[in-house]
Specification:
By secondary structure, the protein is α+β, with helices and mostly antiparallel strands. The chain has eight helices and four strands; from the N terminus they run H-H-H-H-H-H-E-H-E-E-E-H. A hairpin with a 2-residue loop joins strand 3 and strand 4. Helix 1 packs antiparallel against helix 5, helix 1 packs across helix 6 and helix 4 runs antiparallel to helix 5. The protein has a four-stranded mixed sheet, with helices on both faces.
Length: about 180
């Protein structure tokens, strides 16, 4: 299944890039994903084998009007193949390819309190230097269990500068002695 999602996403990015609309397709995909994420009616519709191709295509034309042509073409292909349920996976795969192509990554910053814009900007600059990315898309998450400090996650790499981590490391060093 992942192969299919990757092929759709990679092809969409390639076509969108050739038409200069990869950023707006990315933005539209994120909006579509947000709208569909908890929509059980859409899931039921997308998976229903009794819904005709014409009804699916009419749904796509009405619901997604205004999106760029490459995205509309993909949505029509998915409707035709009864694969509208793949949209969330395609969004994730497209985001991955898009971020890689633009040398950017998502970064989750956990802290005890909400960090200010200035603090997040400073952290972003530090981690851009450390990782080599051109841009980091930072999300601040409150995690009071850290006691203090921060824990940053970029992809599968975790940078843990939290007080709880330091206490755990200290405890481990005492146990070794």
């Amino acid at each position: 299944m992942a192969n299919v999602l990757n092929k759709y996403a990679e092809s969409l990015l390639e076509v969108a890039k050739s038409q200069g609309v990869e950023q707006s397709v990315y933005t539209d995909l994120l909006e579509i994903n947000k709208a569909l994420s908890n929509d059980t009616a859409f899931s039921a519709f997308a998976e229903n084998p009794k819904v005709s191709n014409e009804a699916r295509k009419a749904f796509v034309a009405e619901t997604f009007k205004g999106v760029d042509a490459p995205l509309m073409n993909l949505l029509n292909i998915l409707a035709d193949r009864k694969q509208l349920g793949l949209i969330p996976g395609i969004v994730d795969a497209y985001a991955e390819y898009y971020n890689k192509a633009n040398e950017q990554a998502k970064m989750k910053v956990e802290s005890v309190y909400a960090l200010s814009t200035e603090e997040l900007d400073t952290l972003g600059k530090v981690f851009i230097e450390k990782t080599g990315y051109k841009k980091l898309l930072i999300e601040n998450v409150i995690n009071e269990s850290l006691i203090g400090g921060i824990r940053a996650t970029i992809g599968t790499t975790v940078y843990d500068g939290s007080v709880i981590n330091e206490l755990n490391q200290l405890s481990k060093s005492f146990q070794k002695q």
